[in-house]
TrEMBL record:
Residues 9-438 form the Major facilitator superfamily (MFS) profile domain. It comes from the Bacteria. Belongs to the major facilitator superfamily. It holds the Pfam family MFS_1. This is MFS transporter. One of its GO terms (molecular function) is transmembrane transporter activity. PROSITE patterns: MFS. SUPFAM superfamilies: MFS general substrate transporter. It is found in: Endomembrane system. GO terms for cellular component: endomembrane system; membrane.
Length: 440
């Protein structure tokens, strides 16, 4: 660690995540541009935005499997290149196809940032993993605050084109590229601690089944026939989930002979990410008639998330990660239900604040839980969780878009509350597991 510039590398990582976050705020604002000015339906916009999520997953999985072979430095510069190309293509987007392709590159860039920087942060701060991961992930909601306020200023106040808003991404992109330039970047913690690649794979529990499940989810998000077959049936989704669960148990217990803790965390990540990201990506449509600008609500939500994550260390120390996650799930249910019934600016902001408290700790604490309780999963474990979270969101987006058009925003919000309700039960189980492990 003596030869490393920890502060510079951490700041560079945060700015890379800032670029990722601003792209989320920009998508949340310009979905109305593509439905209004370019004639796309809400479902088409949801599908065109989906690559930003499954592309993220592809990059994260690839990074998790190969980061120790190609080195962290290479993945970082891949992120920079993909971001650059994606931003340029987004500036030129005018229809479904061009919007889709631009989001493929942006998604790959965003995923490469997480694939490289999550393990980089845990390597830089081995004794403060959860705390520093939360501080690193401050810049995701923090970036959405910045992006949403910029969107309101550039488009709504100054009446400039949405392309001007997108072009502002070149500023943090250039700065994080400069900060990483010429710096020594360390090996991942897994390599430094001497855990073999084979042992890392084994500790994931069911790497083959999990990877194939994510590939299927990507297909379901992008092939309309598969998507409609799943969403149009009551029993088929349950059957698919059941088959995957059985295969995970067989691979984890019979083949690898190891605890299924990581697959359990993986399943929870699908729901936490969909709750947080699915809602915030459709916030413009979900809260358009609440008496307050949706971008202001997005800024409130993500601003509270940023503050909460920055001071997460003390809370995690007192409650431990499962306790924090359980509280988050409860607040998320309450926030979504309140948003589905409230009207008027004041109560909408209050309800959004409750939702923000709920989703605040989901993402970094889920990744931190894997790093704390399944450390031998290494960079692969963190990448699988991040990738799975985004590919789950890519499935949810078009479903939410169709629901908004048919059932309306209020019913869509109410239905989304089912996801964190399931998580309440899941995190109670996780709390018992951690408690019993400490006793043992």
């Amino acid at each position: 660690m003596k030869d490393l510039n920890q502060k510079r590398l951490f700041i560079a990582s945060c700015l890379a995540l800032l670029v990722t976050a601003i792209t989320f705020a920009i998508r949340a604002r310009i979905e109305g541009v593509f439905t209004g000015d370019y004639g796309l339906t809400a479902e088409q916009v949801g599908r065109a935005f989906a690559p930003a999520f499954w592309g993220f997953a592809v990059a994260m999985f690839a990074g998790g499997y190969f980061i120790d072979i190609v080195k962290t430095r290479t993945v970082i510069w891949m992120a920079f290149g993909m971001h650059l190309v994606g931003i340029v293509l987004l500036l030129l987007a005018k229809d479904y196809t061009s919007l889709f392709i631009s989001n493929v590159f942006i998604g790959l860039g965003n995923g490469s940032v997480e694939a490289a920087c999550n393990p980089l942060v845990t390597t830089l701060f081995p004794d403060k993993k959860s705390k520093m991961l939360n501080r690193f992930h401050v810049w995701f909601p923090g970036g959405i605050v910045i992006g949403s306020l910029l969107a309101a200023l550039v488009i709504d106040q100054l009446n400039l084109s949405w392309q001007v808003l997108v072009a502002l991404l070149f500023i943090p992109l250039g700065i994080y590229g400069f900060l990483f330039l010429g710096q020594k970047i360390p090996e991942t913690e897994r390599v430094a601690s001497g855990v073999s690649y084979k042992e890392m794979m084994r500790n994931v529990g069911a790497p083959v089944t999990i990877t194939l499940a994510v590939v299927f989810m990507i297909l379901a998000a992008n092939v309309q026939s598969i998507s409609h077959a799943i969403t149009g049936s009551y029993y088929l989704p349950l059957l698919i989930i059941g088959v995957i669960a059985v295969l995970i148990i067989i691979e984890g217990k019979a083949v690898n002979k190891i605890t299924l803790l990581f697959p359990f965390i993986f399943a929870c990540m699908l729901l936490t990410a969909s709750t947080e990201l699915g809602t915030t990506q459709w916030i413009n449509a979900l809260l358009a008639n609440k008496g307050v600008h949706p971008m202001i609500i997005l800024a409130v939500v993500t601003g509270l998330m940023a503050v909460g994550r920055y001071f997460a260390g003390g809370l995690i120390h007192r409650l431990n990660p499962p306790g924090v996650l359980l509280g988050s799930a409860i607040f998320s249910v309450a926030g979504l239900l309140l948003l589905s019934v409230t009207n008027g600016a004041f109560m909408t902001v209050v309800s959004a604040a409750v939702f923000a408290v709920g989703v605040c700790y989901f993402w970094p604490t889920m990744i931190g839980s894997a790093a704390e309780y399944a450390p031998k999963t290494g960079a692969l474990g963190m990448s699988i969780l991040g990738g799975a979270g985004f590919v789950a969101t890519s499935m949810v987006l078009p479903i939410m878009g169709e629901s908004i058009e048919t059932a309306g925003p209020q019913m869509t919000l109410r239905n989304m509350a089912v996801l964190p309700a399931i998580l309440v039960l899941a995190f109670i189980l996780l709390s018992f597991w951690v408690k019993n492990k400490k006793k043992a």
